[in-house]
Request: fold
Amino acid sequence: MLGVAIATAAAGLPASSTAAESETPMVNLVAEADCGPGSQPETGVQGQMPKADRDSGRNKLGYWCNLIKLGGYQGEGAAWVNPSYDTCAYMATAFLGTLGKRSQGTQVIDVSDPRNPRLSTNLTSPAMFTSPWESLKANEKRGLLAGVSGGGALGALFFDVYDISQDCARPRILNGVNGTNLTMPANVLGHEGEWAPDGNTYYASGLVGGSFSAIDVSDPTKPRMVFTGLAGIPANHGFSLSADGNRLYMTRAAPPGVDIFDVSAIQSRVPAPTITQIGSVSWSDGLFTQHTIPMTYQGKPYLVAVDEFNNGGVRFIDISDERNPKVTHQLKLGINAPEHAAERIEDTAGNGFFGYEAHYCSVDRADEPRKLACGWFQSGVRVFDIRDLSQVKEIAYYNPPAQSDNKSKLRGSEHAYGVGASIGGGVTGANLTADWCSSPPRFVGSDQLWVTCQDNGFLALQLTNGAQG
Reply:
């Protein structure tokens, strides 16, 4: 019952050359969490919801280790990426469940009392109503919430921006037309999105062909497109930006990897700006690299990069030489190890598109972080001590109770009623024998994690037994 972390050295090449692929990784062992009092540990391999537990109903109890539930708001479930800000959380919901939903659009959850989160209001402007997919993001500096309409045929035209700085539980639409919820069309083929740290630019990547847009939000009542073009071919995905907003770290769906772009011309508002690729790195295991997180480690600039398919797990990339980024370490759960391939197939059959895969992570701080928390499809929320990347240790986890008995009530869950439910789930859709925790957990205070899982909704979790230290 040991997790697996893989330390690799990669030779990246300048952007003018083909991206280098990581060398054969060197495998190290990572200690499992030592579960203290009050825990209800996993019964199988690290990260596993075994078929025996799914068949017996044990999965409906969930598993936890040094991470307990304080409170939650399930509602009708949630979509892919759902941020929180101050004392509020924002739950996007599946568009395909619209006809059966009682509560439409993006749900605003008041978490001023983490033990009793409650629905405050609904956001029903175009992007929020049709689902912002993986683009719903909050900017801490300016207190802005925004997203583009995304996903399938819906991924076009709309960009919504809200003020959440004054009252996060009552967001105020800023770019509505004549005081209405109708927003001006601003993007094309939306899918992912992210803010520049200063909150003056919102970026959106598209579904196909490396499409990419930058929207000037310096006046959020009048957003305007300042760049549209290509960034990463054939298909880009999620991304992040450097603290100064001059570098964009774009992931690739296939081949998996990360491209580094100079976007300083956009950041400084040069007329007719262009972007330049600086460096790139790719790898052979994993697929559909999901997003990046800038951080420092031992004084060097690093990226965290997550793969959402093919058991790629989480990678740490040294970007101190931007033209030659190097993957130095890789983190996977025990269930992602090659020897458990047959169990992965058996366990997750009928539960939709995703198996045991990572999706979105976050760090407790950008400079020399101590903890990494990740949302994992079917493995719940996982928390790791990353102070020493050569000896990463899992310190806590929470895999919420399966909601297979409540599927009819979860019209807002992408897992229950979205595209991923039918792909891999068959005619009747996903069986919900384990939840999809696809959102980035947010560290709140010294001992809490706030996160949204698709079937269980928003969860306020508390680290215990020394895991908070």
Q: What stands out?
A: Residues 341-348 form the longest helix (8 residues). The first strand starts at residue 3 and ends at 7.
